[in-house]
Design goal:
about 650 residues, alpha/beta, Rossmann fold, GMP Synthetase, Chain A, domain 3, 2 domains, seven-stranded mixed sheet, five-stranded parallel sheet, 20 helices, 30 strands, binds adenosine-5'-triphosphate, binds magnesium ion
Length: about 650
């Protein structure tokens, strides 16, 4: 079966930052002479207070892993994202804020305004005794204050750690304690999809388990009534009025940590990923501009939450470093109805739109009626991130949102990588539905034999995905646990950064992420990525979503266990179960036929929308007593339902 290929249109190629020839030349330079390549990029893209003399000093050897870029350079991230733009674009909109409720007016915050807000916020932090290197937890809704808080930390050299506003008090307390934060910034409550999360009372509950020295800064956003503890709680907006409107920037070393971000926890206990100031910002700036082919004056919308790395890099740091207009959306795609994304695109004339397969599948399940009638003609580039995108969802996105004309960038990367690693470039890379295609500049992917750990040289192959050399956006360590950093990423395959994902490389050298390595199943000696079976299931008209895991099987070694969510109006029947078995059989082959299919009204997902397969694996194995860390689950009740109706009771 030959994959359909979509070459970039002539129109895109003509105006693009990088075309096919450009990609080849730049990629070659980036891996053959990284010092020259990245040195030039860093000097051009960023303002340095003290220039660096050394570009790259990295080592992937277990026991001495070290990742340093531009080590002796001095800069300030907030200066690069705000101050340096003021002379030329002070009155340009930096942030468009679209509130949860479409009836509430949107806000346009200019670079001048951003400068003042961030400076005042920084002064509030200083007044609370926050010093360079101190940790600040940010537990806020998707409101401009979240960006102000992040940039205020950067301005004074404090290290922020954003905790997604959907997390529980427990998850919040764990993170406050893990990084020993001095301050937590929260809001009274967080409106989302017409409902409200009581952030302040969650924070009160979390702080019961933390040092009583932790200060609580509260942004009064909705005006909801909250408890108030004198000497601990601070009204941020009121304080911002009282402090000076200007705050000098603090010169920081390129290797000083900018932030800590905990991974989503889909494979285990979240890790405190540490990112740097210089290398990270450079990588954020370059990928935002090149991957999305962002041009001056465009309106850029990354629909992720700032609680995820995607929000850090592509709502805040990348776009603002480039002097872009970035859209911040407080709401959800399905409220007041499933047309909200398309309404927002029309309203703000969005040019680049970036979302996740889980959102696309959810909207796909609602039908195309919600897309019709919305003017999406300003769109130039579409993006996706977070999971392998099933070709079915890719095609829906392409047909209905891109109208068959727009490049779709399927960006493979991780919290750990800081920015895009494998992705098409709009004007350079012909795309294939479901493939993340080719590496970004400086990224050297290798496919390793999973057991031998040796590099597979054949172009067409399958194995585990690893990276052979460092790139500027790479995480530097796990907060407080460098050993865990080395062990997690550098010990399985010596000399490589191991991403934890499996992949296949096709005859054109394109990469296809097959999911977590843990998700590879071995049926009667045949190795199979679960993503493939899931894609086949989702391609069936009655299936909305599917998750596939392996479970011990007497005869085959491993059997295939599929959790299937049906489209809204479809009844689960035994007949349909048979139909799906036959469907997968014909789509992939007899070997892929699911042994057990469980109807799943909902799937356990992280708050970032990823399916937690480790939980599904436990249930499939009939070993649901110890599910591990479930603190990042979006809706824990889903799990009980699945356990109750499990298919394997042996
Ligand atoms: P944890 O590491 O705590 O288990 P996580 O891996 O879900 O959490 P993230 O860093 O947010 O946390 O997710 C990165 C992972 O998401 C990648 O390793 C990959 O499995 C998946 N992923 C992201 N983008 C893509 C993509 N475009 N195609 C395929 N998989 C993707
Ligand atoms: Mg991970």
């Amino acid at each position: 079966m030959k994959d359909t290929t979509y070459p970039p249109s002539d129109a895109i190629v003509a105006g693009a930052h990088v075309d096919a020839a450009g990609y080849e030349a730049m990629y070659k330079a980036s891996v053959e002479t990284p010092d020259t390549f990245w040195g030039e990029e860093a000097r051009q893209r960023l303002d340095w207070i003290e220039p660096f003399t050394k570009v790259k000093d990295t080592d992937f050897t277990l026991g001495q892993v070290k990742i340093k870029w531009f080590e002796d350079g001095v800069l300030n991230v907030a200066h690069n994202c705000i101050d340096r733009h003021l002379a030329t674009r002070g009155e340009q909109t930096a942030i468009i804020f679209e509130p949860d409720d479409p009836q509430t007016p949107a806000q346009h915050i200019t670079y001048n305004e951003l400068h003042e807000k961030v400076s005042r916020f920084a002064n509030v932090l200083l007044a609370q005794g926050v010093m360079r290197g101190d940790r600040v937890i940010i537990y806020l809704p998707m409101i401009p204050e979240a960006a102000y808080a992040m940039l205020a930390c950067a301005r004074i050299g404090a290290i922020h750690s954003v905790v997604f506003a959907g997390f529980s008090p427990d998850a919040l307390a764990n993170r406050i304690n893990d990084c020993q934060a001095k301050v937590v910034i929260t809001a009274d409550s967080a409106p989302r999809g017409g409902r409200r999360t009581p952030l302040k009372s969650n924070t009160d509950a979390a702080l019961l388990h933390c040092s009583d020295k932790v200060r609580c800064l509260v942004v009064k956003h909705t005006g909801d009534q909250t408890t108030w503890i004198e000497d601990r709680d601070v009204d941020v907006k009121a304080m911002m009025e009282q402090v000076a409107p200007d705050c000098p920037i603090r010169p920081m070393g390129a290797e000083d940590p900018l932030f800590i971000l905990y991974t989503s926890g889909s494979t285990g206990k979240p890790k405190g990923v540490v990112h740097s100031s210089g290398g990270y910002l450079l990588y954020a700036s370059m990928t935002q501009q090149i991957t999305f082919d962002y041009h001056d004056g465009d309106v850029f919308w990354c629909g992720a939450d700032v609680g995820w790395v995607t929000g850090h890099t592509y709502i805040v740091y990348g776009p603002l470093a480039n002097g872009a207009t970035t859209l911040m959306f407080e709401g959800v795609p399905t409220w007041p109805d499933a047309s909200r994304f398309w309404q927002v695109i029309e309203k703000h004339k969005v040019n680049q739109f970036y979302t996740a397969p889980t959102a696309i599948r959810a909207l796909m399940g609602q039908g195309t009626g919600f897309v019709e009638g919305h003017d999406l003609s300003t769109l130039k580039v579409l993006g996706t991130v977070g999971e392998p995108i099933n070709p079915e969802a890719w095609n829906w996105y392409n047909d209905n949102i891109g109208k068959g004309k727009l490049p779709i960038v399927d960006t493979w990367w991780q919290t750990e990588t800081g920015g895009h690693m494998i992705t098409p470039l709009p004007g350079a890379t012909p795309t294939k539905p479901g493939s993340a295609t080719l590496p970004f500049f400086g990224v050297q992917p290798v496919v390793l034999d999973p057991t031998a750990g040796t590099v597979i040289d054949e172009t067409k192959c399958e194995g585990v995905l690893a990276i052979a050399d460092s790139w500027p956006g790479q995480m530097r360590t796990v907060w407080g646990d460098h050993e865990r950093f080395e062990k997690t990423y550098f010990s399985d395959y010596k000399g490589y950064y191991f991403a934890g994902d499996g992949c296949r490389r096709d005859e054109d050298g394109y990469y296809w992420i097959t999911g977590r390595v843990d998700d590879v199943i071995n049926v009667s000696g045949h190795r199979m990525g679960t993503a493939e079976v899931e894609s086949a299931l989702v391609a069936h008209a009655k299936v909305a979503e599917a998750a596939v895991v392996g479970y011990p099987h007497d005869v085959k070694g491993q059997g295939i266990y599929a959790y299937v969510t049906l489209m809204n109006d479809i009844e689960p029947t035994d007949e349909l179960r048979k139909e799906l078995e036959t469907w997968v059989r014909t789509e992939i082959g007899p070997i892929a036929k699911p042994d057990l299919i469980q109807w799943a009204p909902g799937l356990p997902k992280t708050r970032s929308g990823k399916i937690m397969r480790r939980i599904l694996r436990k249930i499939a194995e009939n070993d649901y007593g110890a599910l591990g860390d479930t603190s990042t689950l979006a809706d824990p009740s889903v799990v009980d339902e699945l356990i109750e109706n499990r298919m394997n009771r042996g």
